[in-house]
Amino acid sequence: MAFLKTIIIVFVLTPLLTTKSYAIENNLxxxxxxxxxxxxxxxxxxERDVYRHPKQTLLxxxxxxxxxxxxxxxxxxxxxxxxxxxxxxxxKLTVAGFGKNHPMDYLRKSHIKFVEHLGKNxxxxxxxxxxxxxxxxxxxxxxxxxxxxMILTFRNTHNWIKNGGVENxxxxxxxxxxxxxxxxxxxxxxxxxxNPNESANDGYVPESYLINLAERIGFKLVEKSEINANLKxxxxxxxxxxxxxxxxxxxxTNMEKYIEIGESDRMTLKFIKQ
Length: 274
Fold this sequence. Notes:
CATH topology of the largest domain: Rossmann fold
Largest sheet: 8 strands, mixed
Mean pLDDT: 94
Order of helices and strands: HHHHEHEHHEEEEHHEHEHEHE
Helix content: 40-55%
Low-confidence stretches: none
Structural class: alpha/beta
Number of strands: 10
Distance between the termini: 42 Å
């Protein structure tokens, strides 16, 4: 009799749990759609959606509304404009930036401009927490170990290879993520046989190099996606990745050619902290 009751309970609860899970996922997708189309986003940022596929990318990484998420070096806030509204009610978003006291004038001013941009919309951005990315070569110094569900870094790794410290950066990611936490990486992709120390000068990184780096530090590759791939990008441009949109460093020279190529070919990698 007890066995029969167990079967009945499982039979009744399974479709209910499945329906609830579907509803949660459906609500998340609706929220992401609303955020991406929202009037709070800059028009120039929306124009990049066709290349950057924010909805597909975030769903691939497994974003949830109640997560603690750390965004690394947000630049002008392209992804911050999307992440903050998703997480503002149930989760927490922290951005690790250069800080207002950074010794390099350009990076200091870039950070201040980013913070000022967020300050114009307190309703959406007031809950964002700010941390210093690099304090005298101590990365993420102000963040407790094992404290985040997810870390996201978009098109940054080439700079850490160029400037030194890439292994220490990824070790810091491993330190502050919870066990089972997700590291999501989007990066301009070089040819696999390229020397990363050379390709990084053009903004590109070999996918195999990045995977080996992360796994050597203690991450495990869960899955990789071609969401942000671009087969038109041959990775051989006069000014590296910055030849392409949105930078278009050559100005009017061959502009139509580079607009036709679009933004760079990018790897999209999902790691887990074991």
